[in-house]
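user: At home tonight, take the chain set out below, taking as long as you need, and be ready to discuss the fold:
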Amino acid sequence: MKTASAENLTKKEGAIKIMILASFYRGDHVSRMNPYHQLSKVASSWNSILFKELKKLDLELHIVQFYPVFRPSIFREGNVNYYYLPRVPKIDSFTSIIKKIRIRKLAKEIKPDVIHGIGSEHGNVYPALQDGIPSIITIHGYMKKIIKLKGNKDILKSLFMVREEDKAIKSSTRIIAINGYMKEQFIGSGCSEDKISIVPNALNSNFLVGCLDEERDIDILMVGTIYALKNQHRALEIIKELKSEFGKTPKMVIAGNPTGESKEYYDSIIKYKNRNKLSNVNLIGAVEQDKLKELYCKSKILLHISDFEADPTVIAEALACGVLPIVNPVAGLAYRVKDNENGYYIDIHNIHNAALALNNILDDFNKAQELVTKGKQDVLAERSPEKIAVNTAGLYYRVIDEYDG
C-alpha cells in the first residue's frame, strides 16, 4: 500500500486520474458563464481550499459539478479540468435518472482511477460504481435522524438524504468522515468501521494568519443563518437574564441573514430585542470572509448554540482567531468543543443557569483565555489545507490498492 506525504505525492507517485463530483465550486473562471443565481459560498469555500492544494500534487484532476449553465462547459487549467454540467430540476426520481446518465457518460470519457463525491453530490458517485470505478465520498452533513428534530423537520429534510445517497454510502470503497460524530453516524447506519477515515474540512487560509493585537471590544459574537435551528432567540433570552439578574450588558453582535422561510422568525427576534431594550445586541446581517475575520479578531466569545450541526466551521474559524467557543453540546458541536478544554458547554434549556455560567465566564476571562490558546494551536495543526490535501490524496492511492472490483 502506498503512503502519502507532501514530498512523495508531488515527486514520486504517478499522476492518477481523479474525477471529483463537487457541490457548488466557484472557480475563478466561472464568472464568464453568467450563472443565473447566487450559489452557496460556504460549499464553494470548502471545496476551493481543498482543490487549490490538490492542484499542487501530482494528480490529474477532473472536477465536475451541476451548475446554472444551459449547456456543458469545460475549462482546462494545467493539471485540472473543470466540467460544468447543466443543473437538473429538483424532482427526485427525474433528477436522479438524468444525473446518473450524465455522470456515467462523463466517467466513461474520463476513465478515472478514482471517483470522489463531495458534499451534497456524494450520492451521485453511485452510478459510476456500477462501472467498476473505486470511489470515495466525503459528506458534510448526513443524518437520517435529524428530520425528527422538532420544529425544523422541513428545513432539514430538504438538505439531506435521498435514495442514491444512501446507496453510495453503503457501496463506496471508502468514506471520509469530517469528524468522530459523523463516523459514529455511518457506523450506526450499517457501514463497516474499517472503511471510514476521518479527514476534517480544511480551514480557509485567511484564518491561518493570526489576528493583530487589537482590542477585543465585542464580548459575544454569534455567526450563522438566522433561523430557529440556530437558537438566536435563546441567546437573546440569556442576554436578557444576564441583564436583569446580574446587571451585565455585554456587547453582542449577531452576524447572519434569515432565509426566505425564516423571515418571520427574524422579525420576532427584532421585536423581542426592542421590547426588552437590549440595546447592547446588534444584528448586522451577513458579512464577507474578510469582515468575518475582523469580527472574530475583535471578539472574546463565540456563542454557538444550535440544536444540530454536523461540523461547525465557525467554531474552527473562531478558535483559529483566538475566540472562546461556548456551545450547546449536541452532535458535531460536542466533538469540536470539549468542556473546560478548548471552550465551554451551557444548558440553553435553563436560561437562568446559562446566564449564570456566562456571567462567571465573563468575570474570570483569564481562565477562559488559557483554553483558547490550546484550542487555537490544536485547530491550526489539524486543519492546515496542505495537510488535508495530502491526507485526501493518500486515500486516493489507498482505494486503488484496496479495490477488488
Q: What stands out?
A: Residues 15 and 59 are 4 Å apart (CA to CA). The chain is about 40% helix and 20% strand. The mean pLDDT is 83. The chain has two domains: 6-202+384-402, 206-382.
